[in-house]
Every structure is written in C-alpha cells, then in structure tokens.
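Quick one: structure for this chain?
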Amino acid sequence: MIEPGWTVVGAGGEQIGRVEEVLGEPERDIFDGLSVSEGLLARRRYVPAEVVGEITPGSIRLTVAAAALPGLEGGAPRG
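Got it. Here's what it folds into:
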C-alpha cells in the first residue's frame, strides 16, 4: 500500500516530489491516483493511476516524465 511521504520519480529517474495523498476508495479497492507535493510551499500535482509504474517500498516510478504531468492544484480533477 502506498503511503504519504513516499518519493515519486519520473520515467527518466527525475524526482517529482513526495506523495501527499493516495486518491480513490480503498474500501472498494479503487485506486484513482496520487496527489504529489513538489516541496513544502509548492502546489500539488495530480498523478493519475494510469501513469504509475513500478511501486517499491518508499518509492514510486512513473511511466512518464515529470514534464508530461499536468500541474493541478490539490487532488484529482473534479468534473
């Protein structure tokens, strides 16, 4: 299970930030994505579940580079 504070890196190994929140409904086993902070005062980025690649304890590697992620405030986009 992914936890807040884990490091998130892009496909090329570039550091994107740290997990602030895991988005979804754990009781229904639904994983929507991650809210990732780039720094203490930086805004959060939404990382959709579709781009989460390798998950190892304390680290998440995405299948895309940092530049490919939209810079969205807070958690998942609201429709």
